[in-house]
Each structure stands twice: as structure tokens, then as C-alpha cells.
């Protein structure tokens, strides 16, 4: 993720990346107490393989089948899991209050002692 101190710089970078790569990129706000505050990342898209993660454990949940237009507020996967965006322009989508959406099919468990 590219990081920026200014929202206008981040918007400009996202627009440039969209033009150069042909892929969608979004501006994310990491919060007022984080520096640099803004970032640009590749937007999730329908068909992406994804997993959910919590505390070092990862479980595949299929592919993205539906995304709320414009706001990307809700992402639904092929197994029926719904991930909700934490805040308006957050880079974090969460299911059931704790499972984070991650790219790729990952199946790994944190070893417990």
C-alpha cells in the first residue's frame, strides 16, 4: 500500500494507478492518529479468492461474488460470508465482528502451545 499525508495526493495517485494499470485502486483513511494517514490500495473485485483471518488462523471462504457499489461497504463471498467495512474509508473488512478479509486462499492455524 502506498502511503500519503494528504488526501488530494492520495486521490491523484489512485487515479494515476487506475489509468496505468487498468485496475481499480481506492483511497483509504487509516485514522487521524496514524501517520501517514492516507493510503492507496488495489480494490477488491468480484472473482478474487479470499480467506478470513483471526489471531493467526486463516480459513478460505471462496471467492468474492458481490460488492456494494461505490462504497464497497459489504463484500459477500461464495460461501455466504458477509464482510463489512469497518469505517467509511477503512482498508479493513470484518465478518462476525472479528474475522478480517485477506487476499488469497490461505489455510493455516497458529500453533497453540
Describe the structure.
The structure is a single chain. With 113 residues, this protein is mostly beta strands. It has two domains: 2-42, no CATH class; 49-103, no CATH class. The chain has one helix and nine strands; from the N terminus they run βαββββββββ. The chain has a six-stranded antiparallel barrel with strand order 4-5-6-7-8-9. Strands 1-3-2 form a three-stranded antiparallel beta sheet, with helices on one face. The model has no long low-confidence stretch (mean pLDDT 92).
Write a short abstract of this structure.
By secondary structure, the chain is mainly beta. It is built from 1 helix and 9 strands, in the order E-H-E-E-E-E-E-E-E-E.
Look at the structure and give the mean pLDDT. 92
Form type? globular
Strand content: 35-45%
Q: How many β strands by DSSP?
A: 9
Helix proportion range: 10-25%
* Biggest beta sheet summary: 6 strands, antiparallel, barrel
The structural class is mainly beta
What's the structural domain tally? 2
Unreliable stretches covering 5 or more consecutive residues = none
Number of helices: 1
Amino acid at each position: 500500500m502506498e502511503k500519503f499525508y494528504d488526501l488530494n495526493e492520495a486521490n491523484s495517485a489512485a487515479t494515476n494507478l487506475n489509468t496505468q494499470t487498468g485496475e481499480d485502486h481506492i483511497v483509504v483513511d487509516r485514522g487521524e492518529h496514524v501517520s501517514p494517514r492516507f493510503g492507496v490500495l488495489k480494490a477488491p473485485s468480484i472473482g478474487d479468492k479470499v480467506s478470513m483471518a483471526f489471531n493467526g488462523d486463516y480459513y478460505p471462504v471462496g471467492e468474492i461474488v458481490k460488492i456494494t457499489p461505490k462504497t464497497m461497504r459489504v463484500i459477500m463471498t461464495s460461501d455466504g460470508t458477509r464482510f463489512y467495512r469497518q469505517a467509511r474509508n477503512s482498508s479493513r473488512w470484518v465478518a462476525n465482528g472479528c474475522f478480517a478479509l485477506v487476499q488469497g486462499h490461505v489455510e493455516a492455524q497458529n500453533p497453540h502451545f
